[in-house]
What we know:
Blueprint: H1 5-26, H2 38-41, H3 44-50, H4 53-66, H5 69-73, H6 76-87, E1 92-93, E2 96-97, H7 108-123, H8 128-133, H9 135-164, H10 180-200, H11 210-219, E3 224-229, H12 238-242, E4 248-249, E5 254-255, E6 275-279, E7 287-288, H13 310-323, H14 353-359, H15 365-369, E8 375-377, E9 390-392, H16 406-410, H17 421-425, E10 427-434, H18 440-443, H19 450-454, E11 460-464, E12 470-474, H20 484-488, E13 497-507, H21 513-521
Antiparallel strand pairs: 1-2, 3-6, 3-7, 4-5, 8-9, 10-13, 11-12
Helix pairs in contact: 4-11, 6-10, 7-11, 7-13, 9-10
Amino acid sequence: MKFNILKVIRIILAGLVFLLVLLFFCDFADIFPDFFSNLLRIQLVPSILAGSIWILVGLAILAFLFGRIYCSVICPLGIFQDIIARLTQRGKKKNKKKRWYNYAKPYTILRYSLLAICAVFLIFGITTPLLLLDPYSNFGRIAVNIFRPVVMEGNNLINWIALKFNNYDFYHVTIYTVTTYSFSIAAIALLLVGIMSFLRGRLFCNTICPVGSLLGLFSRWAIFRIVLDEKRCTGCRLCEKACKSQCINSKEKTVDYSRCVTCFNCLDRCNKKGIGYRFAYSLRKNYHSVSEKNIPAKQNKMTGEYGINRRSFILASTAMATTIPFIPAWAKKNEEIDITKLTPITPPGSRSLKHFKERCTACHLCVTHCPQQILKPAGFDFGINYAFKPRMVFYEMAFCNYECTVCSEICPNGAIERLTTEEKKVTQVGIARFVKDRCVVFTDNTSCGACSEHCPVQAVRMEPYIDGLTIPHVYEEMCIGCGGCESICPVRPIKAINVLANAVHQVAVKPKEEEIEKINSEDLDFGF
């Protein structure tokens, strides 16, 4: 085995990208600055959803020049698969035989059928297939719902040990953001990717990943590629055994460029200089790609790939359709239902429920970085097209901070657009609804006023009721739906005041300065 500088550079860059992305997703203490999110904006699917034309052009040029280098250096799930493959390394080691990689025929129809399904659904504003298959979003869910809780529990263990020695440098953290649904889908994705990587290297990338299939269309014509020298190649199959994409056919001396992820693992295996990474188009006399060899009759003459038969295609398509759990969100017709659960409250900057559903792929980045931890992954309560996407949940003493714009600053998909602080202060994501029959002022004839005290825009005001008591009144045009009133309301189990979502976000009316001064100068009775 010889030293290869290209492979070393690739490993260093990939390791750096993977580490930074992983730390940014697992950062529970808000240590890393928000500009780290730029590493996520150059992911392919987020850039498509965000309409980042220049990033898309850059990634296309990158694929045309160097092949699928994106999959080996930029995609965190691709790098994660390489780590798994490395930990389960194949080949001979200390007289112990492990499995080698071997050339495998591609599942062409399956690959591009899944890509077409994602594209068609996306055109109609449905991101569910893409949500399930997108490598970036899957890695995000794995990191947020599995790796991050492990890191947080590790911190708690260190904190517990430190306290035994009277060291108070650490503090205990509580996990609020992981739900049963979000953990389940993350665990399934981790198990699927892990098994496929262990058994067949980059099988996930070259079978069901829509990003890999899309980049494969560009990488077929890459200017720099892995090329085989027919004169020098001895057919020893060492390069084929090292190829985790299983795209090198030593017998036919061909390379399937649509599946090659440009990992350079094959280069340091050959001692005869029979394989190299070079400018391909000037070497046609000696070097051959998959489309330049004698192609078997059953092989596609245009792509050099083997297809699958009609029965396999029908089975694959049927499996794809039946595995999507179309579970309708039926609302219980019960007076005790929490009305805030009928429609999800989407984060400020998401513009509307429709816009958010069409752009969000449930990577859960905003969930991890919400300072108040009020963004939680949904289940199937709001239909299949909202499955696992974040929604605002106001629990005890937790609400959307009046001046916080973190989620809009880090979202790479454009699902949550950037807001200035002033824009955030008047963005109405929902409207508080007061139910008089549940309020302690009505039921217990006692003073409260907590909701009014907690409202940052004075949309909830205490007005005269009976016997000197005051009762809340909501001025809907000023309410921004921050949840301050709902979070502080002492009524259980269903609050007397809660926020109803706006399907389309509105602009709230800002109270006049003299109006605020008048309210602040009044003697409000808060019951303590």
